[in-house]
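Chain A, query sequence.
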Amino acid sequence: MSKLDLTQYEKKMIVRNMQDKDIEQIFKLQKVCFPDMDPWKREHLESHLTHFAEGQFVVEFDGKIIGSCSSLIVNFDEYDDKHTWDDITDEGYITNHDPDGYNLYGIEVMVHPEYRGMKIGRRLYEARKELARALNLKSIIIGGRIPNYHKYEDEMSPREYVEEVRNQNIYDPVLTFQIMNGFTVMRINPDYLPDDEQSLKYATLMEWNNIDYRARTKRYFKTSHPVRIMVIQYMMKNIDSFEEFAKQCEYYVDVAADYGSDFAVFPEIFTTQLMSFLEEKVPSQAVRKLSAYTEEYIEMFTHLAVKYNVNIIGGSHFVEEEEQIYNISYLFRRDGTIEKQYKIHVTPNERTWWGIQPGDAVKVFDTDCGKIAIQICYDIQFPELARYAVDQGANIIFVPFCTDDRQGYLRVRYCAQARAVENQVYTVIAGTVGNLTQVENMDIQYAQSGIFTPSDFEFARDGIIGECNPNVETVVVGDVDLEILRRQRKSGTVRQLRDRRRDLFDLRFKLDTEEKPERT
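Chain A, predicted structure.
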């Protein structure tokens, strides 16, 4: 008898983190599990993966998704005792996920009916428990359905029903399972899930305590999380060499370091100052000569960021890639790493005089001061980009700009302040002043750089942390507080992020779903 190939008999059951490729199968699973409840939308699950991918699990059996669960981290003490599912999940998008929180909050568990009895739910709960242990979280909290309660509503109250289930006199497919998995009932919340007719909208708030939890003295509720920003209103004047340009840049980074700044922000295309000694009068050729300094520019700012321990928004610079010219802003982190953001919307002037090509990706960058985005000048005038960046976690949007007159400047300023209000985010604009009399298309500049906030009681009266005097070479230094921003997003007078009518409109960046190569 020949040796059996055992692989032909194998049917693998795998518990793993959810991936984008699983979303369509999860939609089908939800329709089978909860046919009478509102299903996930694609943007819900995409948001889960964006904000907390490690907290989303699926069970795959022989290549098919047969179970899934979703969760986020919260500081549960910050939520009302009678919170609803929408409150705790930001209407299913989990944008309120708090990586520094104490509690893992479970918001969904699904098991395909054909595979119940195979311990699928238990496997998902064990995955959550392992995650809670790995992240040293204090507990897991869930708002559990009581789907059999509708059968007993005329006989007993929700509390009495829960007691009967706990005493094993009544079987409830959800509550009984949760009790068997070590969860204890904290309380009963009414109106928890509006479309849960079987539970009559009630939910049992339950908790599993992590006995391996180790209290950390450095974990605490923050009263303040300031980030100091220095904005450079840069003077454009004739120079004779790159070394002279580098000395001016180092001077400002040194000043930023002296003030204890976390970020130093330079303006858009301020490197065009180098054109003053390039002796090229044709603008389309001048930008190509300018792009030859890209490596020196990158090496200089990388060195300065590390030397002075300051994250630098390096304004923007014209860069040649594959024979095309792009307007690119670089983030030089103080740990020596580098990121870049292409300008998405090219102005008619840039296209006509310099032949600038548009980028096609909105990025959000991790820094040691949280997530930030960069939107170059014209880009801040398109509200979709800021909304998308904030949905991806950005707390600060930096806007390097270059405008030649007051009207152009005011477009940038008004839009930056509008984005701050619309998205409950800080915006920072940094522009050029002075003139380059010998450089075609860069002869005059107008700017009044500043740091802006949302408009509410927590912030400065006019939503302005600081601003430069117009049209002079100077800097402005100000602190933005990320903790105040977090609180205002949760409980401000108005809450634009949470009060959006997602049932009527939403925003999706097309390249999230289309396969298109991204420049690097």
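Confidence is low (pLDDT under 50) at residues 513-520. The CA atoms of residues 148 and 491 lie 35 Å apart.
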